[in-house]
Write a structure and sequence with these properties.
alpha+beta; eleven-stranded mixed beta sheet; two-stranded antiparallel sheet; 17 strands; globular
């Protein structure tokens, strides 16, 4: 197809890019050329892509129409490739932090995190009379257990009843792919006995925590949302992050639902049902950590683990009205996680509050197993959220055209939230230009697609897994396999290029602030229930602000800041410098404090801890 070769972009050196507010660099909007497909149309499209006659032509047309040829395949990029987004540790001299002993056990780190939180009342559960909606926190569970008001065993029984009830609704919420009532009760009984002896392991002892079904957790198989992957890749034990939570006494309550192979941001799974949004069960909860977002939103757990390869923790957190936290690449061990996207994926935390995200992060962070790629081990600092001295002189970078590329309700809500934050703490916004964002999105897609295709290739060669895919995931895997080595190398060159661009932005500001998604949760179509759904246009809108966190390995956090007219949650995102987790948590905590009195109760909510 040489005669039809699309001209490629010649990228000028980063040093020549103007990143200031008056830059002549043009904001290129996403222009995704792909119809929404579900049902029969998704099946037909899969057959076309897999056709020996039409497949190659279809892939060529898709790449050309969606500007992969222009921005990636045929582009001239002078920068060297960066295959892994590893960041050398730099002491950022952050405000109001404390350094943590790197050899501290997970339980010791949890206690140190608790010591960083503001003092809370020791009142009983009955004494809490909230004037606004409030989810039970890890501290609430720990306090109630210590005071003898309720036991982990009683909480486990309520949890099991709630999960059963949720599947009996007219619209089943589909929180979990697997949960084992017997195993949950066993863990809860052991925790109850520890409290009776006056010897809980940590504040997490007896607290229910859910795990995305992309992370190994005994005694469950790890399906990755498929019907077949666990048959060729058996789970042999806990992932490192799960083992750390278990060592703190947490009750691991099961494997949450997810989009098959994390393929799209909708979270819809044709095999196990769509994890529905507790704020409106007719809508998506977001993906791919959809079940983890839904269980936290609905009050079943104060926190859950997810994996974020392309916003897959932050997007569902935002759409479901909870906190979503993705640390710096390399901060949390990845061992025991399905190796679907090893240079962009990262274990993250979804939680009802920033404090709970912090506590779980404290438990699972720390030294990495020696076989994982890393630079020198980074120091661990925790934010002193109980400090009476708010952090000062914070500069928030905003790229106006990008920030405003969302629906009007989100734009107004997030703009007002940033303004409120700056007025309250006397922080400043810095207008910047971040060029080539659409290029970065496409380079990330080539990267995550190539890595996923490579990870699955040996399984698909020796197993009939493709025929057991949902049709949406089948199409996505077909597309992933269409990228070649030239495109992958070009994408890694662009990764290095964008790392340099973002380093220059961070020389001007402490964080980048954006809406978390470009739209709120959309409706689940009936024809997606059995085949899955391909909706690249809505997917591109949801993922618009996510890419730097994954492609460049940067830490990022989303916190709920409001609702649209339909009552659907809106999130605000902070993207930080490498290793700046404490500053991000300070910012999210400050934002949460200004919005928490306006938080609303979801339509589907279970009061697992409260008295009945």
């Amino acid at each position: 197809m040489g005669l039809l070769r699309a001209a490629g972009v010649v990228y000028k050196p980063v040093e020549q890019l103007d990143l200031g507010p008056d830059s002549n660099e043009i904001y290129v909007e996403a222009d995704i050329k792909a119809p929404r497909m579900g049902g029969l149309l998704a099946k037909i499209f899969a057959w076309i892509l897999e056709s020996r006659i039409f497949g190659a032509l279809a892939f060529y047309i898709l790449k050309r129409l969606n500007r992969v040829h222009k921005f990636i395949s045929n582009a001239t990029v002078e920068e060297p490739p960066m295959f892994v987004p590893l960041h050398p540790y730099v002491d950022l001299d952050e405000q109001e932090v404390i350094e943590i002993d790197s050899d501290a056990s997970p339980a010791e780190r949890v206690q140190q995190a608790m010591n960083c939180l503001p003092l809370t009342s020791e009142n009983s559960l009955d004494a809490f009379k909230f004037s606004c909606f409030r989810r039970w926190t890890i501290a609430d569970y720990s306090r109630a257990y210590r005071n003898g008001e309720i036991t982990p065993l009683k909480v486990a029984e309520r949890f099991i009843y709630a999960v059963h009830e949720s599947s009996s609704r007219p619209l089943s919420i589909a929180f979990f792919i697997n949960y084992d009532a017997e195993d949950i009760l066993r863990q809860a009984t052991e925790s109850t006995l520890r409290y009776e002896r006056g010897a809980p392991i940590s504040a997490l002892d007896g607290v229910p925590i859910a795990v995305k079904d992309e992370i190994d957790c005994s005694p469950y198989p790890t399906t990755g949302g498929t019907k077949w992957l666990h048959k060729v890749r058996p789970c042999t034990g806990d992932a490192c992050c799960v083992a750390r939570l278990r060592s703190c006494g947490a009750i691991l309550v099961g494997k949450t639902n997810m989009h098959e192979l994390g393929a799209t941001p909708s979270g819809i799974n044709p095999h196990y049902g769509p994890p529905r949004n507790p704020y409106d069960p007719s809508r998506i909860s977001g993906g791919s950590s959809s079940g983890s977002a839904a269980v936290v939103c609905a009050g079943l757990c104060p926190a859950a683990l997810g994996v974020d390869g392309g916003g897959s923790v932050r997007m569902p957190a935002s759409l479901s009205g909870v906190v979503g936290f993705k640390p710096t690449f390399g901060r949390i061990p990845h061992s025991g996680v399905l190796p679907l996207n090893w240079t962009v994926g990262m274990v993250g935390v979804l939680a009802g509050t920033l404090e709970d995200a912090f506590i779980v992060y404290a438990a699972i962070s720390g030294h990495l197993p020696s076989h994982e790629p890393t630079t020198l081990p980074p120091k661990i600092h925790f934010p002193l959220l109980n400090s009476t001295n708010p952090i000062s002189n914070i500069k928030l970078a905003i790229y106006g055209e990008w920030f405003n590329d969302c629906n009007e309700e989100i734009r107004l809500c997030c703009s007002n939230a940033v303004q409120l934050l700056c007025e309250r703490y006397n922080w400043k916004t810095v207008e910047v230009t971040i060029p080539e964002l659409e290029v970065m999105r496409l380079a990330h897609y080539v990267t995550i697609g190539s890595e996923c295709s490579t990870a699955l290739s040996s399984h698909l060669e020796n197993f009939r897994g493709r025929s057991e895919f949902g049709w949406d995931a089948r199409v996505v895997v077909d597309i992933y396999g269409a990228f070649n080595s030239n495109e992958y190398i070009k994408a890694q060159k662009l990764r290095y290029r964008h790392m340099q661009i973002h380093n220059k932005i961070f020389a001007k500001a402490d964080v980048i602030v954006t809406p978390t998604t470009g739209m709120t949760a959309y409706s689940i179509s009936k024809n997606a229930l059995k085949t899955g759904e391909l909706d690249y246009v809505n997917g591109g809108t949801i993922i618009r602000y996510q890419i730097a966190g994954n492609f460049l390995g940067l830490p990022a956090i989303t916190v709920p800041v409001g609702y649209d007219k339909a009552g659907l949650p809106i999130g605000l995102q902070f993207i930080g410098k490498p290793w700046s987790e404490p500053t991000l948590m300070h910012l999210a905590f400050a934002m949460q404090a200004l919005c928490i009195t306006d938080y609303r109760k979801p339509k589907v909510f279970y009061d697992i801890l409260g008295k009945k």
